[in-house]
């Protein structure tokens, strides 16, 4: 079986990079600057502008409207993450191949959190215990110990849409320096696909590296 090709972002070659990870097909990076600006300016917060290139490629009006409805709470979560120090945010669009084939939206986020020094396994366990999650799983990743947690959130939406239920899954990956933890979060409105999204985030977490994996500077 051939390995799937990866597109290497320019940030991966930055001298300041201290964490590397890979996302599967279907994820597109969201502009952090624009997300931050829409968080501080309600007049710019329309999700249609962020999704415009995607929506223009979908001829079905009902599908476009549903994607806009699903994206509204995800956008607010992304904006909150950027405001609190997110270093990467991506939008995921995937077909529900275990259901009716409809398009499912998700948002992936990566952020750092400072912690008091402790063995990495202890830090991962503490993060999971303090997360008030519905499900907790210990991970033994190639880069070290970690934990993954999942919980459901209910966020209020503007009338007349009412409340929106979200699935939020987070992987806590302690850094080798012992005083930082990388938090990888995947959020979606497709709460019925919890196990599938747990698998997606677990696979992403398995690619995390704190050492530069790009041994060939000309590798694409």
Properties at a glance:
30% strand; seven-stranded antiparallel beta sheet; single chain; 220 residues; alpha+beta; 29% helix
Tell me about this structure.
- There is one protein chain.
- α1 packs across α4.
- The mean pLDDT is 81.
- β4 (135-141) and β5 (144-156) form a beta hairpin.
- The chain is of the alpha+beta class and 220 residues long.
- The two termini are 19 Å apart.
- It has one domain (20-206).
- The longest helix is centred in the first third of the chain and has 23 residues, at 61-83.
- It has a seven-stranded antiparallel beta sheet with strand order 1-2-3-7-6-5-4, with helices on both faces.
- It is built from six helices and seven strands; from the N terminus they run βααααββαββββα.
- The chain has helices at residues 32-40, 47-50, 52-56, 61-83, 120-129, 194-206, and strands at 27-29, 86-95, 103-114, 135-141, 144-156, 163-174, 180-188.
- The radius of gyration is 18 Å and the shape is globular.
- Helix content is 29%, strand content 30%.
As laid out across the biggest beta sheet, the strand order is: 1-2-3-7-6-5-4
According to DSSP, the number of beta strands is: 7
Low-confidence stretches: none
Q: Strand percentage, roughly?
A: 25-35%
Query: What characterizes the major β-sheet?
Result: 7 strands, antiparallel
Using the alpha-carbon principal axes, give the shape.
globular
| Rg measurement, Å | 18 Å
Q: How many domains, as an integer?
A: 1
Helix and strand element order: EHHHHEEHEEEEH
- The helical percent reads 25-40%
Overall mean pLDDT:
81
What structural class should be given to the helix and strand makeup?
alpha+beta
How many helices? The count is 6
Distance between the termini: 19 Å
């Amino acid at each position: 079986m051939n390995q799937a090709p990866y597109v290497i972002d320019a940030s991966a070659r930055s001298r300041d990079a201290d964490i590397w990870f890979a996302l599967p097909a279907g994820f597109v990076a969201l502009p952090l600057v624009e997300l931050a600006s829409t968080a501080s300016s309600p007049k710019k917060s329309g999700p249609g502008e962020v999704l415009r290139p995607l929506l223009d490629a979908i001829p079905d009006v009902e599908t476009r409207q549903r994607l806009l409805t699903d994206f509204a709470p995800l956008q607010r979560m992304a904006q909150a993450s950027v405001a609190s120090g997110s270093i990467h945010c991506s939008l995921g669009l995937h077909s529900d191949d275990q259901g009716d084939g409809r398009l499912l939206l998700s948002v992936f986020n990566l952020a750092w959190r400072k912690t008091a020094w402790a063995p990495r396994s202890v830090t991962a366990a503490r993060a999971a215990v303090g997360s008030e999650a519905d499900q907790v799983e210990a991970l033994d990743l190639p880069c070290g110990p970690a934990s993954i947690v999942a919980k459901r959130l209910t966020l209020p939406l503007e009338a007349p849409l009412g409340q929106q239920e979200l699935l939020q899954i987070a992987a806590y990956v302690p850094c080798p320096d012992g005083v930082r933890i990388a938090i990888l979060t995947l959020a979606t409105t497709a709460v019925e696909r919890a196990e599938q999204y747990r698998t997606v985030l677990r696979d992403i977490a398995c690619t995390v590296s704190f050492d530069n994996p790009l041994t060939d500077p000309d590798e694409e």
